[in-house]
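Hey, sorry to bother you again with one of my protein questions. A protein chain has come my way and I'm curious about its shape. I'm sending you its amino acid sequence along with the backbone structure tokens. I owe you a coffee for this, so here goes:
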Amino acid sequence: MKKNLFAFILLLISFSVSAQKDLYEMRVYELKFGTPAAGLHNYLEKALFPALNRAGVKNIGAFEEWSQNQPGKIYVLIPYGSMAAYEKINSGLSSDKTFAEASAEYNQIPQDKAPFVRYETSLFTAFSGIPQIQKPAAGSMVFELRTYEGYSEDAFTRKVKMFNQGELDIFKETGLHSVFFGEKIAGPQMPCLTYMLGFKDMEERDANWKKFVDHPEWKRISKLPEYANTVSNIYRTFLKPLTYSQL
């Protein structure tokens, strides 16, 4: 009896661990036109990222847009194990002396030399189909960030279901290399979901998207009535990793 109970407890623990879903923070820094961004880059690379790493956060992403539009933007993707971890780690930064010392130069930047105007933060819970961040293959240089808006909460929920119950499998089969998929729980454009794909170059990206569009299973599920009108707008941005990105 005790042996069976012990096995059952281990099964519950195993299920709990496997069901654990990441919480993602996505920051988008809008750089100040005409002001050097070196101070922000140094802060992220030498202060914030190492502090988060010490607290157990791994695979932090840092990207810039492929376009040369001005003002430029920096995208930072931070994966946390849970909302509790997000709260604990961020509150703990204030007592991290090493972080304070590494941040000193950044904190002394005068107002007229500030490298960014503001940054926008969004929070996401990971999809059940991809519950943790996926580190891309070495040499991935093209990252495609997509946001799908739903016209209603129901439309959004149905699109998430479509991904979890079929579309993610087709992504994997056709070489659309997933980095993360998240349901937005705080931030603009809600209700919406956001995901990121990684490719070695644009040629691989274009070829594999064609495989996806031509895939018979995608053609089948895309015509199912339950998934009709699930996406009202799609926003796409191409990113490239910064030198200190951990993805």
Q: What stands out?
A: Confidence is low (pLDDT under 50) at residues 5-18. The domain at 20-241 is CATH 3.30.70.100 (Alpha-Beta Plaits). The radius of gyration is 20 Å.
